[in-house]
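Weekly puzzle thread! Below is a chain. First person to post its structure in token form gets bragging rights.
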Amino acid sequence: MAELFPKSTISVNGQEIKQHGTPEFPCACYNVPPEIQVPWHWHEEFECSYVFHGSVLYNTPQGRFLLDEGDGIFLNSGTLHTADAARDGVCKKSDLVFHGRLIYGSKDSVLYQKYMKPLMAPDAFQTLVLRKNVPWHFEILSRIKKASRLCQNRPEGYEFTVRSLLSEIFFDLYCYQNAPSRESSAASASENERIKQMLLYLQENYARPITVAELAAHASICERECLRCFKKMLRLSPIQYLIHYRIARSCILLRESDLSILEVSSRCGFESPSYFTKTFRRIVGSTPTQYRKNVH
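Winning reply:
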């Protein structure tokens, strides 16, 4: 299994803090290698993905979605998500990540007030799976594919065309906002906020022992509701998530510091170096020492 945090671009609350594009043109295209597993995260920007080859498994609070060649997905602003290669691990996809202001400019504009604001409301759909055999999905997919290639090749004036394509995508979403994919069984806005609140608590306190009772009390819910929320939204228990997050943080320390294995183990909340090494090997596929050698 590849490292959980390939780059230090996830803040302590799980929000991606990397600048996508530039302040002048807040849009970027990424071709994430299939061997890189992206951790659960969210960002203020919207994200559109297109699968050029193979299959990709997307995980969001709205469900697990297998995307095959020619399929894609639209992720609303603030949507929790993670993705990795499915089946044989061979895939090629492009992620188009952009800020809404590229389209609407000012929040005083009619583009924002009439068209984009409703799509960014808490009760709007968060995930829309785009299937190539659905006619109006296919139109959006064609625009994502074209915009992705323009962002990669950057011909003269590509910014105009990309902005136009993204505007057309949003108008399609505005027209069809009452008919999202049936695969997207929406989680409520309150559940989204609750899980983000609990993730933040775990990520701020991962270096010490944390119980489910403590986490539930922080969110002002019972333990049973805490477990149900995690299982529904992330398909992990709170403790499973905490262990994976600790391992992810240890990867950063092993890669970016000279701390001993004992110190890394202690700083990441593991009760003993032997348990840390055993857990690290199970999740990452190598020992901490081997991992450090491989990344240096």
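Puzzle host: Confirmed. Bonus trivia for everyone else. The CA atoms of residues 265 and 275 lie 9 Å apart.
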